[in-house]
Amino acid sequence: MAQDTDWSKVPNFTQDEFDYPNEIVADVLYMLQTMRTNENRRSVQRGGHGIIITINSDYRLGDPGQHGKGRALDVVIRDARTREPLPITMQFWMAQFYFWTGIGMYPYWKEPGLHLDLKPVSPIYSRRRTWCRQEDGKYIAVEEYMATVCRNTFIT
Ligand SMILES: [Zn+2]
């Protein structure tokens, strides 16, 4: 099902960055652009280099989940100058400001990144789902992962 995306509203992304640009629901791309615009500005304002967002996976034919509906993207949020992925906790922190209905943390991808999805329900009335995939493939709560990171970072 072709989508009616106005690509002029998505100025920081080009169609060739996606496998199936015409299968992604327009609101997903507009949300991605809003996040890119706001978080880039915020980064620059606090003296950072700005951010860029690269796409790992978009529409997936036959996927029973949100990827198969054109409503999910797998992304890596990066430092705009070094192009290195931001720490996964920072990527999650940025994403949680936006009305994604699902945010998955993937610290053990080749490069750490996020799954972002937007289900066709009112995000105002639906509870957001979040999760974190561990190195062994098991899923844990984001809060549990955060607690582990904090323990490992601040142990005395
Ligand atoms: Zn995904």
Approximate strand percentage: 15-25%
What is the radius of gyration?
16 Å
Ends distance: 55 Å
Question: If helices are DSSP runs of H or I spanning 4 or more residues, what is the number of helices?
Answer: 3
Query: Can you tell me the residue ranges where pLDDT is under 50 for at least 5 consecutive residues?
Result: none
Q: What characterizes the major β-sheet?
A: 6 strands, mixed
Any ligands, ions or cofactors bound here, and which? Answer: zinc ion
Q: Report the count of strand segments.
A: 6
Q: Please, how many domains? A: 1
CATH class: Alpha Beta
Helix percent reads 25-40%
Query: Structural class per helix/strand content?
Result: alpha+beta
Tell me the strand order in the biggest sheet.
1-2-4-3-5-6
Order of helices and strands: HEEHEEEEH
Shape: globular
Estimate the mean pLDDT confidence.
94
What name does CATH use for the topology?
Muramoyl-pentapeptide Carboxypeptidase, domain 2
CATH architecture: 2-Layer Sandwich
